[in-house]
Amino acid sequence: MAVGACPERNSGRHRGHFPDRPLASVRELRFTYPGADRPALDGVSLDVGPDEVVVLLGPSGCGKSTLLRALAGLVPHFHGGTFSGSVHVDGLDTRRVRPAELAGTVATLFQDPEDQVVFSSVEREVSFGLENLGTPPGAIGVRARTALASVGAEHLLGRQTTELSGGELQRVCLASTLALEPRLLLLDEPTSQLDAQTPSPLALAREAGWTGAVVLSEQRPDRVLDAADRVVFLDRGRIVLDAPRADALAWLAEHHPAFMPPGAVDASASGSGPTPSPTGEAICRLENVSFAYRGGPPVLIGVTLELRRGQIVLLSGPNGTGKTTLAKLAAGLLDPLAGTVTRRGRAAYLSQDPGRYLVRERAIDEVALGVAGDAERARRALASVGLGNHAETHPRDLSSGERERLALACVLSTEPDLLVLDEPTRGVDPERKQELASLLRHEAQERATLVITHDVVFAASLGEHVFILDNKPDVALV
Amino acid sequence: MLAALAATALLAHEWWAIAAIAILVLAVCVGAPGRRWPYLLGASITPVTIFLVTPFVEVRGVHVLWSGPTIPVLGHLDVTTEELASGALQALRLGAVTLAFAAYALRLDHDRLLQAAWFARRSVLAVAVATRLLPTLERDALGLVEALRGRGVEVTGVRGRARLVSPLLAGSLERGLNLAEAMEARGFGRAGATRAARPPWTALDRLGLALAPALVTAGVLWL
User: 100-119 in A: which are within 8 Å (CB) of B?
Assistant: First the structure.
């Protein structure tokens, strides 16, 4: 099925799920950001039933986040731009009602929890939205505590938001949205910072007994497709599929197999390339390494790990077990408190925050910064991550997935002997992940590669050597 | 109380009283958890500058310790014992004030303090967000430096660090926009907002409120 050939789309078929009227209704929405040369959304029509779960899929920059913002009224009110068509939520026309007035009916959990936290204390943070909605003062504390308990975060009540991990902060933000008891919950890449063991915000919300409608965008479909009633696939601002889950899976298998959950497709199809063979010399060896941040408890105790040229090692384990610390020790960004780290050749480290690779004004300059201004190498690195046509783009004009790929180009261009990647697939769409896996496997013989990832599909497509970190002493390579 | 201590340090005349206040707030800062040195360093820059500059811009005293050249505009440069004493007193005064601000940043639960304010909700919120700006900028700067080191670029010298100012500000603006968007999506600015019940005042809170004006009055009249 291609654009215009999808029988479900525009047929009104899904309106049969909600006999009265849809909770949210988008009609022929076309939206262009200020200064953009093409629309982010181009003729999008969509209905969402009162208790439906709609999953938005599509490549980076295809308009998923923009559609979520349109449902929250933030597009066009907050972002400006050119808007035509209509969006109605619970009977309210978002062109006439400001986002603040929609709050309570709609609640949004944004992609990066750190960018939505207002207060330092968890209790004040969860109370903020309730205060804005005019909740009686005596009820605010009770509802805030109930919301925290509903997502298993009541123990965080007295904590400071600045000292929480990414996963904990995401729970607090989810509690802040559920406390408003919205009818429509919008989730923008809700699992991007969560390990495989941590339930997704959608699962937490359902466990908490919340039964409203959900529209979520996701680049890890394996985490959410099971819960989906419908799947909407966007490409370049247009809906190319809007179908019930079963039909959507069949369509995805045919047109975009990378978006299929693991097990549904032939594993060999993902991440093609030669199987890395760790026959080369040792590039990095950590022996009985221990580490603690100043004034804090031990993060690593007696860890031993060897990385050889030609080898891709996956570093796995729950949130907060010291994976990033171990990666920084391997790359030479931290010094161990005890034990030894020996390294041969040049090391490069990819931070898990792509916002740290936005120093220069053009993407090509950003990449060239690490290779002494060598524009040709920078151009090759950009092309290798699919950003060849963005060389002149300002890095801050890239989407979150594109920023992640720019960061990758920054470290790949340095052609290191040891490549350390900390969550390299945040916000990257499944097809790009496959390309990245192929690239890493093709270049594996040139270096030792250490990858931290929560993304089980990406991990499966990469390698066979898994190092599990679980805060127990004397962890060894398995 | 911190505000009263700062006001008393500004109004008092006795050097020992000002020194006592400075030592008290310094002790409060040193006893605080977390990274204290950036705040203590920031609190010490202005007083040290005042101490160094005062002897050259003030003309006072007859006990000359050093006599220098005559500089156009500034005139004849010399340093007297009285100028040094005056500079030390002004530095001590200002040090007590800046340390009081450092103690505010290090020790107080800002959210609770701001929650206690029953007026000007938007201004209070602006202060809450601004209070988080400095630690956020510090963390962003460390992150930028680390990411650059991770691709083989060492950031050294004043010029190297100065190059990070622009991306730091751009990042800060972007974060500010994201935060504003998230706040609007959570209903900020809507009519009819309420406030969560404020925690009740303790006996210590009441004692502090009573002592604060008394301390300032004593500073003006007797210290």
Answer: 100-101, 103-104, 106-108, 110, 112, 115-119
What residues in chain A have per-residue pLDDT under 50?
A: 1-16, 265-271, 472-478
- Give the one of A144, A358, A410 whose C-beta lies nearest to B167's C-beta: A358
Helix (H) or strand (E) holding A363: helix A363-368
- pLDDT, residue A465, reads 66
Q: Tell me the residue length of chain A.
A: 478
Residue A29, classed as helix, strand or coil, is: strand
How far apart CA A327 and CA A314 sit, in angstroms, is 11
On whether the CB atoms of residues A141 and B196 are closer than 8 A, the answer is yes
Region of residue A149 (left: phi > 0; alpha: psi -120 to 50; beta: else): alpha
Please count the CA atoms within 13 angstroms of the CA of A135 that sit on its side-chain side: 23
- Sorted by sequence, the CB contacts under 8 Å of residue A348 that are 6+ apart come out as A331, A370, A411, A412, A414, A416, A418, A419, A420, B150, B151, B152
Question: What DSSP string runs through B86-116?
Answer: HHHHHHHHHHHHHHHHHHHHHHS-HHHHHHH
Hey, is B8 helix, strand or coil? Answer: helix
Q: For each of chain B's 223 residues, which pLDDT tens digit applies?
A: 888 888 888 888 888 888 888 888 888 888 877 677 777 877 788 888 888 888 777 777 778 777 777 877 777 778 888 888 888 888 888 888 888 888 887 777 766 666 666 666 777 777 777 767 777 888 888 899 999 999 988 888 888 888 888 888 888 888 889 999 999 999 998 888 888 877 777 888 788 888 888 878 877 776 7
A359 touching B, CB under 8 A?
yes
Q: pLDDT value at position B200?
A: 75
Phi, psi of A220 (to 5 degrees): -120, 75
Helix axes B165-185, B133-149, angle to 10 degrees: 130
Q: Which helix (H) or strand (E) holds B190?
A: none
- The SS3 assignment for A93 reads strand
- ipTM over cut 0.85: no
Task: Say whether A74 and B170 touch across the interface (CB within 8 A).
Answer: no
Q: Do B150 and A348 touch (CB under 8 A)?
A: yes
Of B144, B190, B195, the CB nearest to A137: B195
Asked whether A84 and A76 are in contact (CB, 8 A), the reply is no
Of A205, A19, A222, nearest in space to A214 by CA: A205
CB atoms within 10 A of CB A425: 26
Q: Would you report the helix, strand and coil content of chain A in percent, each value rounded to 5?
A: 35, 25, 40
Q: Looking at the complex, does the CB of residue A16 fall below 8 Å from at least one CB of chain B?
A: no
| A346, A411 Cβ separation under 8 angstroms | no
Q: State whether residue A384 is helix, strand or coil.
A: helix
Q: E-strand spans in A131-228?
A: 184-188, 213-217
Does residue B45 sit in helix, strand or coil?
helix
Cα Dmax for chain A = 68
CA distance A117 to A124: 10
- Contact between residue A445 and residue A473 where contact means Cβ atoms under 8 Å apart: no
- The first and second tokens of residue A121, run together, are 């204390």
